[in-house]
């Protein structure tokens, strides 16, 4: 599975991505996405899990965001077809770029690509959930055409701002 818009490519994470992922991890990724610093063992296990999910048609689709002729790993984006805070027909979108690749519009491109993929899988809506202090992630959601969709608390009490996109709406940015 490979998705591309001519600038970036998205393809499933593979074991060879582990080293680049660990090298690209910084305080922002740990704070907003993973919740703790990665270890080689943990990243290897996660990538194996992602491969198993792809093979089994599971609820997780994790992609590497790749840039350039050599398809350098610039970050990750994943879809969760079953997650806390979703209603039937929705998919959760989560993403993170490594520091060297931020500020270039790559996360927005990746969100649009995975939303097109999700729409093709029959999903009716996409949701991006971010902590209120994560202005960069909220800006990506808005640039990708997502609208504010309220707030909610997770089971552990974390407040999240929700951004939603109707993937069936005529003119949806995900379908263009």
From TrEMBL:
PROSITE patterns per UniProt: GNAT
N-acetyltransferase domain ranges (all copies): 8-170
InterPro entries registered for this protein in UniProt: Acyl_CoA_acyltransferase, GNAT_dom, Ribosomal_N-acetyltransferase
Origin: domain of life: Bacteria
UniProt-listed PANTHER family: ACETYLTRANSFERASE, RIBOSOMAL-PROTEIN-SERINE ACETYLTRANSFERASE
Protein name: GNAT family N-acetyltransferase
Organism (species): Streptomyces lanatus
